[in-house]
Design goal:
Structural class: alpha/beta
Number of domains: 2
Order of helices and strands: EHEHHHEHEHEHHEHEHEEHEHEHEHHHEH
InterPro entries: YkvP/CgeB_Glyco_trans-like
Number of helices: 17
Helix content: 40-55%
Strand order of the largest sheet: 2-1-3-4-5-6-13
Pfam families: Glyco_trans_1_2
Low-confidence stretches: 38-45, 354-363
Number of strands: 13
CATH topology of the largest domain: Rossmann fold
Distance between the termini: 17 Å
CATH architecture of the largest domain: 3-Layer(aba) Sandwich
Largest sheet: 7 strands, parallel
Protein name: Spore protein YkvP/CgeB glycosyl transferase-like domain-containing protein
CATH superfamily of the largest domain: Glycogen Phosphorylase B
CATH class of the largest domain: Alpha Beta
Strand content: 5-15%
């Protein structure tokens, strides 16, 4: 399959990992990269004033001329699939032009963010959404509540978060690695007040906690049991931290309406023991106290930590079962990409459907149902 892949292709990002997977699966992939403009407040503060204001208003500037490049590429080459990954600068006129020039191509939009939230999209994104044959979301509520259909999406597919088996895998760690990255209880992630409060409560309960992530300079508290590194880690360092720690925490981000996150599959895939907030999606992905452990509130969190820090055998058994679940259930990028391509191939082509779906008609599914 000839694929035109539009996305933020920064090395070692999940977007770049998926492009590599498509190529590994034997597809001929042409990349149209751009820089992200919606990566949160830390990224946005670095923008010049005018682009920053336009982002806030929901009209991001196409400073890299992605729309023109998309149309130009459609005039020069033939593609079977247009894969667009979180590209809020793409406008309807560019997608319409591509569709006219490439009538045989399927058009897919994919984002790991909650597309129903305004700050994860744009005026341009919402205008172009009805033009795609398939919209893939990692947020189940986008599908079951019809949120993206209400914005005009023709067919919505749910695919949970996935991991890169070349990166997220168990590794042997030595004493130096454990000293550099390890912890009794580890959290890797951006600062949020609720997360910080939970980590502090663990520390006050006599538990040693170590934190890596952005934004923790805003955390004004301190405790001898709480070690805040004040820096993010990724890649092999991230994997080393998971593999050299006894328990890895999985907090959800309420502002993003998270029910599971990247770490929900990355921690178990690395053979780590995951202790995460209980949610319907977490319980669908892993069996509680068998493949991961879940909690509601700090009292249950502290109780589980105290229990499993004192039971090495149970902790290792659950971690091993969590990794097996990741492998057996196809939580890896390649399995997901196959499912998503199958969903795109099986969806009605835009030439076969009306521009507007019948009121109340559902066009939603999960990619696992299609594959």
């Amino acid at each position: 399959m000839d694929i035109l892949y539009v996305g933020e292709l920064t090395p070692n990002t999940r977007c770049e990992q998926r492009l590599r997977v498509f190529r590994d699966l034997g597809h001929d992939v042409t990349a149209l990269p751009f820089r992200s403009i919606l990566d949160g407040p830390h990224q946005e503060r670095r923008l010049p004033p005018v682009p920053r204001v336009m982002n806030k208003l929901g009209f991001p500037l196409d400073s890299e001329n992605v729309n023109t490049a998309l149309v130009n590429m459609a005039t020069r080459s033939r593609f079977d699939l247009l894969w667009v990954e979180k590209a809020p600068v793409l406008r309807a006129h560019a997608i319409e032009s591509f569709a006219r020039l490439q009538p045989q191509a399927r058009l897919v939009y994919f984002s790991e963010d909650d597309m129903a939230l305004r700050h994860n999209g744009s005026f341009w994104f919402r205008g172009a959404l009805p033009l795609y044959d398939v919209v893939v979301t990692t947020k189940l509520r986008n599908l079951v509540d019809g949120e993206l259909e209400a914005l005009g999406a023709q067919r919505v597919v749910y695919e949970p978060k996935t991991f890169d088996p070349k990166l997220h895998r168990p590794i042997d760690v030595d004493a130096n690695t454990t000293e550099k990255f390890g912890a009794d209880v580890l959290f890797v992630g951006t600062y949020e007040r609720e997360r910080a409060a939970s980590c502090l409560n663990l520390a006050r309960a006599g538990i040693s906690v170590r934190v890596f992530g952005m934004g923790w300079q805003r955390f004004g508290e301190s405790h001898p049991n709480l070690r805040v590194e004040g820096r993010a880690i990724g890649g092999d360092d991230y994997v080393a931290a998971l593999c050299s720690s006894k328990i890895a925490l999985g907090f959800l981000r309420r502002a993003s309406r998270d029910e599971h996150t990247d770490r929900s599959v990355e921690i178990p895939a690395c053979g780590g023991f995951m202790l995460a907030e209980r949610s319907s999606e977490h319980l669908e992905l892993f069996r509680d106290h068998r493949e991961a452990v879940f909690f509601d509130g700090d009292d249950e969190l502290i109780g589980h930590v105290e229990r499993y820090l004192g039971d090495d055998e149970a902790r290792r058994s659950i971690a091993a079962a969590g990794r097996r679940r990741c492998l057996d259930s196809g939580y890896d990028h390649a399995s997901a990409c196959r499912r998503m391509l199958a969903a795109a191939s099986g969806a009605p082509h835009r030439s076969e459907r009306d521009a507007r779906p019948v009121a109340g008609e559902r066009h939603s599914t999960t990619s696992r149902e299609v594959a």
